[in-house]
Amino acid sequence: MKAAHAFAADNKTYTDRHEFHIKRGLTARPMEVLMGDVHTVDLTISAALSSKFKKLRDAAFDAAIAGEVSVKAWLIAWMDGSSGYMWATPVITGPGQGITQQDVALSLYEVLTCPWGGMPGEFMIDNGGEFGFLAESVIRFAAMAEISGLGVVKCRPYHPEGKARIEGAFGVIARGFISALPGYNGGNILKPRLKSRGKAIASYDRGPDRLIEDLHLAIAQYNGTVQQGDLAGLSPKAMLSAKAEATGWQAQRIDDPYMFDLVFSREERRDVRQGTITIGKRRYSGSVLAEMIGEKQVPVLVPWRDPNGPIILFRDGVIHHLTEETFALNDREGAVRKSAMVGLQKAEIARRKATGAEVDVQKMLSDAADLGPVQHNAPANWSFNAIDKGGFIGAPISEAEAHARQEEEDRDFLEEYLSSKRTGRREAGGGNHQASLNAT
Predict the structure, then answer these.
(1) Rounded to two decimals, what is the model's pTM?
(2) Beta-bridge partners for 137
């Protein structure tokens, strides 16, 4: 019954204790499978905000030591399925921040441009939203490079057949290497290790730059340390080298950042208006847009690595980079740029006039209008040939009968008239007689 209860109420417990699992070993060739995962670094850090300005990072770190801000450290890691060799990118996030698709793209860039990394045959990742862009990007790369079989596998939760090796490696790195750093809390932020009875371990206090160096060093120590099991006394780095030599494997590297952006980007479709394409609140322009006056739903690519940088327009086999341009009020380069673009647009209009057929406006209007007859049902015909005031046409009686009827009507009218005349005379005679009587 415990198993039945776990199956119904606690999927993780059931999967860990009861569900059948298979064992998977290393792949024969390097980079046949590349596993990706995100892991929280088990260090107690008051704060270390990420910035490209060293002074700002140091100031943020000092504020954190004072307890003003709390932050987190992460590792975005990628592991070769043939050796367990790991690439990892440390990420330090501030309050309310997390790992984004841009962070993952920047981390993956380091793998795909590495001479002993490159594009894998298959990605194996979890269902986290930060990896959501990979499927579309891999399909695009496979089409461009004419590679079949390239794909993305999303692992099911609580199933160690998937990313168990990389998740186990995180444990090895934490216990064997990160545990040697100051501020290691034992991996349980709710119940951390204590320096002594009732006294918590001090925070990591070496500064943000040193923190990143220490995390990179921990990964390098892991890659260079001998392991047993599948590695049979070799380090992950040594196993990668051995399998590359044994199989003659060469990295399928993307060494051009623009090529990386062409693959790992999201597609947007926009209309060309005033020689620009707008995405969000940004307006992008480029000379190629002068040739695309009035075009609708033009596909462009927004790189995941730098979504606020130039966008990509792939047209007729040529890669064009569209940039956001802003000129100061007194910058004469703005007028020069406008003049150049307007000139290109006029040249495009002239080209269209020269190569296109002459436009017949009336024909266009007629083609757009319905000039055909009115659609109607068949009418009931009614003929009209003469005016029949006597009622002869179509009458149910003969002509002689009609004349006799007319004579009868005339006699009736005459008798009525004569009768009215006689009545009038009698009334007149009676009036005179009465008058004579009154006189006597």
Answers:
(1) 0.62
(2) none
